[in-house]
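Hi team,

Filling in the usual template for the complex we talked about on Friday. All components are listed, including any nucleic acid strands or ligand strings, so the model treats them as one assembly.

SUBMITTER: L.P.
PURPOSE: interface mapping
COMPONENTS: two
RESIDUES: 462
SEQUENCES:
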Amino acid sequence: MNGIWVPLWLSLKVAGWATVLATVSGIAIAWGLSRWSSRWCDVVDAFLTLPMVLPPTVTGYYLLVLFGRRGWLGEWLQSHGIELVFTWQGAVVAAAVVAFPMVLKAARAAFLDVDHRLEQAAAVLGVPPTAVFFRVSLPLAMRGILAGILLAFARALGEFGATLMVAGNIPGRTQTLSIAIYEAVQAGNDDTANTLVLVTSATCVAILCLASWLVPSGRSGRRGRSSRRSAS
Amino acid sequence: MSLLVDIECRLGGDDDGFLLRPRWRTDARRVALFGPSGSGKSLTMQAIAGLLRPDRGRIEVAGRVLFDSETDVDVPPRDRRLAYLFQDYALFPHLTVRQNIGFGLRRGWLNLHGRRDLPEQAQRWVQAFGLVTLLDRYPAELSGGQRQRVALARALSTDPGLLLLDEPLSALDAGLKARMRDELAQLQRDIDIPTVLITHDLADVRVLADEVFHIAHGEIQGQAEQVVQA
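RESULT (copied from the run log):
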C-alpha cells in the first residue's frame, strides 16, 4: 500500500503548490495585461502561453537550462541554498510553468468581461486602484478564474514530461503518480500499474465533484436565485 | 458654483476619428448639456470625472483645477470629490444595497462587511431615499426606480462637491421617468450640491436645469434660448 500513498501524496503536494504559484502569478499578469492596452499585450500573452503549446519535454529542457547547476538562474538560486533539479520543489516549478497558461487565459478573459464602468464607478467613489481590484474586479471575475484554477490543478496533477526532465524519477522524493505509472508499466508490474491508474482516476473524479460543488453553475448561483425572488 | 471646461481630445484615427472640443463656462447651480447621442456629451462628462484624459486644455470646478495640460495637473478620479450617476447606474452586482451605498466610505481592500451598520453620512441618504427595507437586497432584485435611488445614495454618501448626472432617466419607462424626474428636481432643491446633467430629452432640461448648453459634433453650439426655440 505504501507504494501508492507516497506518490499520491507527492502528486497532490506538487500539484497543490504548483496551482498556488500559477494562480497568483496568472491573476497578477492577467490583470496587468487587461489594464495595459498596447499591441505588445498579445505578444506577451502568446509568449506566456507557450508552455501550453510546447511539448512538455521542451518546456522541461528550457527549465533545466534555466535552473540547472550551471543555469542562468540555477547558479544564483544555489548560492542561496535552493536546489531545484531532482527535488520535489523542482517538480513544483515544472508543473507550475505548465499549468500557468490555464490560469492566465481564464483570468484574462474574465477580467476583460468585467464591466469597465463598474471599475470607473468605484474609482470616482474615491477608492484607490488596489482596493478597486480586490473589491470589484477580482470578485466579479472570480467565477471565470476558478474554472482556470481547476484546469491548472488538473494539468499539474497529470504533468509528466517537464517534471521528469527537471525533477527526475526518484521514488519517494520526486516520483509522482504519473511517473510511477509509467515506471510500473515499463517494469511489467501490472498490478501496481492497475492500482495506481485506479487511484489516479478516483482522485480526478473526486476533484471534479469538489469543483462542481465549489463553483456552482450560473443558474443555481446566488444572483440567479435572487432574481427569481424579485420577479415574484 | 463655477465650472470651466475647455478641453480638446481626439479619439480614434486622424481621419475617421472624433474631435471632442467642448468649451464652456458657467456659474449656474444646475447646468445641462443637451445634445443628440454621439455629440460627445458623455465623453465631456467622463473628462470632468477624470475617466477620460484630454489631449490638452483645462477643467476647473469651483475654482479648483482638476486638469490643466499647461501645468501638468491631472487629479485622479478618486481625488476629484465628484459624484457620478451612470446611465445604467453601475451598481456593483455582487454587493448588497448596504455594501453598495457604503462602498465609497471604505478605502481598504475589503468591502463593507455583511450586516454591519452603515456609517452616519450614508444613513442620512438611506433615510432620504426610503431604502431602509432594501438594504440586504442585491441590485438584480431592485426595480429601475429603486436602482436609481441606491445609485444616488451611493454617490451622495461620499459628500461630493459636484453631482454629474449621465442621462439619469433614460433607463426608465415613461411613467416612472416623470416621477423620478420630479424626485431629482426635489433633490436639487434639498441639497446644496451643484449638478451637471447630460440629456437628449428637453423635458429633463426644463425641469432639472437653469442653464443649458447645446452640444453637437463634439463642440458647444450655444446656450439655452437657442435650443428651446430650435
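MY TAKE: The mean pLDDT of chain A is 86. Residues 2-35 of chain A form the longest helix (34 residues).

Thanks, L.
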